[in-house]
Amino acid sequence: MLDFNDVEKLIENFNNSDMRELEIDDGSFHIRLSKNDAPKAPVAYQSQVDAPAVAVSEPQAVNQVDESQADEGQTIKAPMVGTVYLKPEPDKEPYVKVGSRVHKGDIVCIIEAMKMMTEIKSDLDGVISEIVVENEDLVEFDQPLFKVTEG
Length: 151
Known about the structure:
Layout: H1 4-15, E1 21-25, E2 30-34, H2 60-70, E3 74-77, E4 82-85, E5 101-102, E6 107-113, E7 116-121, E8 126-131, E9 138-139, E10 144-149
Antiparallel strand pairs: 1-2, 3-10, 4-6, 4-9, 5-8, 6-7, 8-10
């Protein structure tokens, strides 16, 4: 059973460790910790903990940003933390450009995390209206990558 002191100790140990991310979710307890402000490879750790439900929420300002982005069209977001590559190889053309038509399942970029390359596929149909990130940027989980408009 995890109490407040256990959570404090968990956070302290996390801050003193080399881990970049920690997420624990067993259905009744969920906590996500991240130190991804430095360009280091992320390390994720997941564990099952028998604990009462504890609510850990994002700051309200983050939710307000998400709402304003929703007004500007739909976005393709990063499903993971890592380095984004907009081209399959440095000397090749980008997967998509502003004005490119995408369909659900089309590859739009690659995210590298822990030496593994993951193809990121569009979950939307439409036209790329904006590329929000630069090639080789470090991206956070759920960070907008592309804005897509219907068309």
